[in-house]
Specification:
This protein has 167 residues and is an alpha+beta fold. Helices cover 16% and strands 41% of the residues. The protein has a single domain, classed as Electron Transport, Fmn-binding Protein, Chain A (Pnp Oxidase, Chain A, Roll). Strands 2-1-5-8-9-4-3 form a 7-stranded antiparallel beta sheet. A two-stranded antiparallel ribbon has the order 6-7. The longest helix is centred in the middle third of the chain and has 9 residues. The termini are far apart. The mean pLDDT is 96. The protein binds flavin mononucleotide (FMN). The site of flavin mononucleotide (FMN) has 23 residues, from β2, β4, α2 and α3.
Length: 167
Amino acid sequence: MKEINIGQATALTSPDPLVLVCTQKEDGSLNMAPVSFFMYASFNPPMLVFGMGKAANSGENIRRTGKAVLATPGISLKDTVMAYGSATGSKTDKLKETPIALKTIAGSDIQIPEDSRVAFVVSLAQTVEAGDHYLYLCNIEKMVADDTKEALFTWDGYAKVAPAQEK
Ligand SMILES: Cc1cc2nc3c(=O)[nH]c(=O)nc-3n(C[C@H](O)[C@H](O)[C@H](O)COP(=O)(O)O)c2cc1C
């Protein structure tokens, strides 16, 4: 085996999970950012953890409000995911620049994409510093799903999003 760096590792372990972190900005508007640093953290109680760069607006929002909804985006959102991943909610209103169909789910006032396979309504339990990222350890308050929708995953170290199984 040859030694590799972390960028090469992320490409070689892909496909990785993908969620759109949906949060409320300070002015009450909606922000969304794709995140692949996502994993389940506990069955009982149900918990998950996700990691974001320290400067991310999404992180600022969940630290301030204590809440978020994480939605696994459906395949129609391929280009939108890349657009939301290359702009920050601190500077732009991504939902206005790249509008998508939204829906409301019971148990949260944060809207999610209409084309979502699974959505996790979470509340922040703990923020852990991890190098250049913060890890957000969250309680899962509620989970909803539409298994007729096919989800996107990240490929090639976050350069590409596509279904996990090409059909
Ligand atoms: C496919 C994909 C996966 C990404 N995964 C992560 C991630 O796991 N953690 C992270 O901090 N940023 C990740 N990003 C980058 C963020 O989405 C990006 O920094 C975004 O601008 C943050 O937006 P915000 O400042 O509005 O929160 C990813 C981007 C893409 C396109």
